[in-house]
Amino acid sequence: MLRESDGRSRFTLAITLLATFTGIVPAGWRYLPADDEPDREQPDLATLVANADGIDPSGRPNNYGISEPSRYYVWHDNQGWHLRCTSPKGKAYGYKGRLRLHKATFLAVRPIGVDKREDSYGVNRAKDELAFKFLTGAQFDGVDFNVKAEDDVKIEFELFCFGKKTPKRIFIGASAGNPKAHQFALDADP
User: Which of 2, 90, 97, 102 is the most buried (most CB within 10 A)?
Assistant: First the structure.
């Protein structure tokens, strides 16, 4: 049994519960995949790049805003990378995803609209993978991030909206282009 004076045990229990129920642990902690993803499909990099072929991530999507249906927005500008989830007023939707880097690391990750009671995100110790779960209703949830990358590095995105693979709800760059699949890759330095 935990005693009130045993702060370390309470902290360890809180981290264990967070990892168990969300599959995500806070920044700096080792990422543990959720139990519901043992056979997660992982296409090769060429397929991921082809899934976003011809889409320029530069600039905020031209249809950016809280709207029906729920959706993701992804873009790059002079401040770095931005990922937002939105839902229409009066409704709440769950979003879950991962961003992976190869030969690159996350320099900074800043939460946007994240509610600590309902939302979670974390970066692994190697700082090359970011995972998140957001419950979004009538607002924006998301992250802004910067990466330190070598030449020709890609960011791999894997985005789910209410547990479904919905590429038509993902809008990238000023042209608001849709990827061919919920898993895609973009140049880390467009």
Answer: 97
